[in-house]
From TrEMBL:
Record-level GO cellular component terms: cytosol; HAUS complex; microtubule; spindle
A Pfam family assignment: HAUS1
The keyword Protein biosynthesis is assigned to this record: no
Organism of derivation: Alosa alosa (allis shad)
Principal place of residence: cytoplasm
GO biological process assignments: cell division; centrosome cycle; spindle assembly
UniProt keyword annotations, A-Z: Cell cycle, Cell division, Coiled coil, Cytoplasm, Cytoskeleton, Microtubule, Mitosis
Ranges in a coiled coil: 122-233
Subcellular location: Cytoplasm, Cytoskeleton, Spindle
Family per similarity comment: Belongs to the HAUS1 family.
InterPro entries, per database record: HAUS1
Name by which UniProt lists this protein: HAUS augmin-like complex subunit 1
UniProt keyword annotation of Nucleotidyltransferase present: no
Length: 274
């Protein structure tokens, strides 16, 4: 880890001038270390290519000088420089073409072979470029799918969070209602217990229950029904001509009957309370 970090720092210093800030971890160091090794290998390959170009340039220059000597020997020493200039330019052009096409010499066969090779390389690069574009489109498609999935997940998470908030509020309300009902239950229990204690202290018998009260109510209804004929009879007396002795007699009889009924009713009520 320390050796890799040191090599990465030295490589960054050489490439960028100064080491930029980056997060130091195993993954980052491994990636930068691999890049540094690839860069060194690429540098070596470029150096070899430069040396090869220099060597071929020297060979082409030697070949041009040789052809120039051959032409001079064929045309004679007295050929003017003005006639040799176009030939020299042509030779320089052939030399440049040989360097560009990376041929061993300036023969037509070498140029054709180099052209075929460069065409093949170009076609391979175009095919590779098409493959890379296809992969890039697939990656873009996958990236969009991942982004859509992420967006959908965020929406689902938001819905779940809102549902949890609502459920939390409802749960809190239930707890409050539960606490309220428990307090009310305790309060009612306490009141019932207090009422029982008060009834016990007053020695109230349990015979005065709801059923007993209903029976007393029914008996009162019967007594009222028995009193209705007497009331109607009393009203009949009110319709008679005024006769003080008779009226007094009728009123006295009615009062006696009412008093008798009231006495019976009081006895029944007192019996229920005892």
């Amino acid at each position: 880890m320390c050796d890799k970090n040191k090599q990465v720092s030295e490589w960054l210093k050489v490439v960028l001038g100064e080491v930029p800030w980056f997060e130091v971890n195993m993954r980052t160091i491994d990636i930068l270390y691999k890049l540094s090794k690839d860069s060194e290998q690429r540098g070596q390959e470029i150096g070899w290519l430069v040396e090869d170009v220099k060597q071929k340039t020297g060979e082409c220059k030697a070949d041009g000088a040789y052809h120039q000597k051959v032409l001079q020997s064929a045309l004679g020493e007295n050929v003017s420089r003005g006639k040799l200039k176009p030939m020299s330019r042509s030779l320089n052009t052939l030399e440049s073409m040989a360097i560009a096409f990376k041929t061993k010499d300036t023969k037509v066969a070498s140029f054709l072979a180099s052209t075929n090779y460069q065409t093949k390389v170009l076609l391979e690069m175009e095919e590779e470029n098409r493959e890379l574009q296809k992969k890039l489109r697939n990656l873009e498609k996958k990236k969009n799918e991942v982004l859509n999935s992420q967006k959908s997940l965020q929406i689902q998470i938001s819905k779940v969070q809102k549902a949890q908030e609502v459920e939390s509020v409802e749960t809190e309300e239930r707890l409050l209602n539960k606490n309220f009902m428990e307090k009310k239950f305790q309060e009612m229990t306490s009141r019932v217990r207090s009422a029982e204690e008060k009834l016990a202290s007053r020695e109230v018998t349990w015979s005065l229950t709801h059923h007993c009260i209903e029976e007393i109510s029914e008996q009162l209804s019967v007594v009222k029904q028995e009193m209705d004929p007497l009331k109607r009879k009393l009203q009949a007396y009110h319709g008679l001509p005024l006769s003080v002795p008779l009226a007094r007699l009728a009123v006295a009889e009615s009062k006696k009957e009412l008093e008798a009924l009231d006495a019976i009713l009081d006895e029944r009520i007192d019996w229920r309370h005892t």
